[in-house]
Design brief:
It is a single chain. By secondary structure, the chain is an alpha+beta fold. It has 2 domains: about 150 residues, Beta Barrel (Butyryl-CoA Dehydrogenase, subunit A, domain 2); about 140 residues, Butyryl-CoA Dehydrogenase, subunit A, domain 3, CATH 1.20.140. The chain contains 8 helices and 9 strands. The strands form 2 sheets. Strands 1, 2, 3, 4, 5, 6 and 7 form a 7-stranded mixed beta sheet that branches. It has a two-stranded antiparallel ribbon with strand order 8-9. Strand 2 and strand 3 form a beta hairpin. Helix 5 packs antiparallel against helix 6. The relative contact order is 0.14.
């Protein structure tokens, strides 16, 4: 595998795109209710950018490379300091050993960007999907996003960055905010679908949307969607202005995901039997939110991080 290219590189597109714009795109994807590999693409490209390897990214893109970031360990931990995968020197190159789990659309990528410990520091290493020692095991999930467990057994790798803790934190924070945008899109679509249903579905010769209990439930859904969307775009705007990306991402995840989960759950109930039909879209929006909920830390994990920042504590929360 060769990530270099003698052709002069151009600035990668992600370096010219605001996070707010990426969130708007993610929100549109969420409305569709379909799982997408775009999140992995955003995370991978941010990793290159913050690792100071923008030229390598541009060259690899011209060479048709499709990346997926392998961050989460086998125990599902969101803590980077819990990374157990290791990278070791093998003469002039590197070899990677360890297991990464819950990697979406792993089978579609031809290059894995692996967070691993090498020379005592946390780095990012590029591993060809066809390299020796690489084994993929599918993991069926609620989100239908083709997740895999990936085992690396002394797999040859190229070092993208050997000291990449900050790059990983910055990239994950931005990717997490876009994921929250996708959840908001799913919740908004579930709300719109539900409002249409309750205004046309009749019971006792009247639309069920005329019943006060249903109206109150829809009002609660609208409040949740509106405030969640505000929280996510506020976080994206804060990052675009140069504020702390990790804290902004934790604020968005801590608030928005719980709100979006309430909306999609209420949509199931208000749509009655349609809420469990596989050929109707309600379950797809619920799946997207539930799939996003545990990624890179649960809402409780991020609430603890925000609380620690507000109280002036140091270190990461223990729960994921």
């Amino acid at each position: 595998m060769d990530l270099t290219d003698p052709t002069p590189s151009t600035e990668p597109a992600i370096a010219r795109t605001t996070l707010t714009d990426l969130v708007a795109c993610a929100e549109a994807r969420g409305r569709a209710g379909a799982p997408s590999s775009e999140h992995g693409s955003v995370l991978s490209r941010y990793l290159f950018l913050f690792a100071g390897a923008a030229d390598e990214l541009a060259a690899a893109e011209r060479g048709g490379r499709e990346f997926v970031a392998c961050i989460t360990e086998a125990d599902g931990s969101a803590r980077l300091d819990a990374t157990a995968t290791v990278a070791a020197r093998d003469r002039k190159s590197w070899i990677v050993s360890g297991v990464k789990c819950f990697v979406p659309f792993a089978a579609r990528a031809n290059t894995f960007l692996v967070a691993a410990r090498g020379s005592g520091k946390l780095g990012v290493f590029a591993v060809d999907a066809r390299a020796p020692g690489v084994a993929l095991t599918p993991i069926p999930t609620l989100g239908l996003d083709e997740q895999c467990e990936i085992a690396f057994d002394q797999s040859p790798a190229i070092a993208v960055a050997t000291d990449a803790t900050d790059a990983l934190e910055q990239a994950i924070a931005r990717a997490l905010i876009t994921l929250c945008g996708e959840a908001v899109g799913a919740a908004r679509a579930a709300l719109d679908h539900t409002v249409e249903h309750v205004t046309t579905r009749e019971q006792w010769s009247a639309p069920i949307g005329t019943f006060q209990a249903v109206q109150h439930r829809c009002a609660d859904m609208l409040i949740d969607v509106t405030t969640a969307r505000d929280a996510v775009y506020d976080a994206a705007g804060a990052v675009d202005r140069g504020e702390d990306a990790q804290l902004a991402a934790s604020r968005a995840k801590a608030f928005a995901i719980d709100a979006c989960r309430r909306v999609t759950a209420a949509a199931h109930q208000l749509n009655g039997g349609e809420g469990i039909y596989a050929d109707q879209p309600v379950h797809l929006w619920y799946r997207r939110v539930k799939a996003i909920e545990p990624m890179y830390g649960s809402p409780d994990f991020h609430r603890a991080r925000v609380a620690a920042a507000l109280l002036g504590s140091r270190g990461e929360p223990n729960n994921d």
